Amino acid sequence: xxxxxSPALSIGSTGYTGAAPAAPPPAQQATFGLxxxxxxxxxxxxxxxxxxNENISKIALADIRGAMGITRDDASxxxxxxxxxSVSAMAFAPWCAATFSLRRVTLAAIATCMLMGFLCPFAPxxxxxxxxxxxxxxAGGALPPMLMTVALRFLPPNIKLYGLxxxxxxxxxxxxLGTPLAAFWTDYLGWQWAFWQVIPGSIxxxxxVSWGLPQDPLRLExxxxxxxxxxxxxxxxxSMLVVGLVQGERLDWFASPLICLLLGGGGLLLVLFFIxxxxxxxxxxxxxxxxxxxxxxxxxxxxxxxxxxxxxIMIPSAxxxxxxxYRPLQTAPVMLTVALPQLLALPLVAALxxxxxxxxxxxxxxxxxxxxxxxxxxxxxxPDWIRDHFYALQALQIFAQxxxxxxxxxxxxxxxxxxxxxFASAWFNTIKGMAAIVAGAMLDALLTRxxxxxxxxxxxxxxxxxxxxxxxxxxxxxxxxxxxxTSSDLYLTVAAIALAMIxxxxxxxxxxxxxxxx
Length: 518
What we know:
Blueprint: H1 34-59, H2 61-68, H3 72-100, H4 102-119, H5 126-141, H6 143-154, H7 160-189, H8 193-196, H9 198-212, H10 228-248, H11 257-279, H12 293-324, H13 328-339, H14 342-353, H15 360-378, H16 391-413, H17 421-463, H18 471-504
Helix pairs in contact: 1-4, 1-6, 1-7, 1-9, 3-4, 3-5, 3-6, 3-10, 3-17, 4-5, 4-6, 4-9, 6-7, 6-17, 7-12, 7-13, 7-14, 7-16, 10-11, 10-17, 12-13, 12-16, 12-17, 12-18, 13-16, 14-16, 15-16, 15-18, 17-18
């Protein structure tokens, strides 16, 4: 494999320096060309399809509930269990790929995700549907680490950043495209397509990956030092934390014994998991990597960036739906303003970061600054704002989003030893998945509390008004004002987070150069 292996990643490495069994000689590696490019595009397609499946099923949840006769509370577990399985798989998939081969794990994940998507509408009852969505979540969560691995392992240094740009699509392009596609499937083809939409893309991805990716030998000798204690501690820890965060707002957080058990127990298991990982000869996570300033900074900033990216999708969608009664199909043009240009913006930002004279830290700072500017402009919103008022805000994010993601990928992966590649992939993807869950929970909590605050203040003012006024019209105007003020508060919070991340840039990360200039 030495001909094209990245200095940043070698999935076939043992990942530790202890007395491991000798590895079999690697399979002969083809040079990068059409075949490997097809395999890479297949994994990228699978990741995008899986991400869209998660987002679309969330957005179309009301249609799914109505068609399948599921209550709101029961439906919340469809989201929670899928998310828990997805994030858990991100943590353990790199180890599986190193052991059973990248190609086998990728094909199995795509096929499982597709099969579960096909079967979900036929589920005879809620428990079966929950089980199917859990399995599908695990399969979908295993795919992003495979994409990062393929991009870093097979791409030549001069185009490696473009592969990272493809990976960044899962954080920028996919989430913005979820609302338009969900609206299309449910309004024109039926609620079943919220599940079935994975099938065409998955079939194409299976064909591309099976032809394009080389087959590595099995590394079953790694099973002799399998980290059973880490699995038994880490899997329930991550699952409990994710479920607790997803269900926290609905169950009133620590007023619920279940949430206390999930978050408290999950946190304790996570601490024990990391203690075990510190000394295990073949761990799932290598904690010693956090001593690398660039990786630690990238992981920390990644959480903030995902919070911002999730917020700038959620705020306009929720505002337009609650104040002006927009359906997802009517909100779709606002989301597409950011989603479609990503196909051009991402490679352009990758080309910029690929220049030796360009310091990616300042590309990151400019991207965060543009995101903050977009949110500060949004904070000036009024109840008169309609869809057209959001286009300018979204336009600022076209380049801001990739400028905030690609430098983090470059900081996180540049300069790693080959044996550390799978560990970096586990760290980055697990933090990415967990950060999205934390961001969603924080936004829900902020939304509820600011709604209550503004409702209380305006209700007190309404109570002091003279009798004889049109109270129905007044209540509608008050509702619109509450939603607007809450949205403005959220925009200000998001802007503050983006600006705070800029402050860290001169302190934590060090200057790096793109792979071809290293």
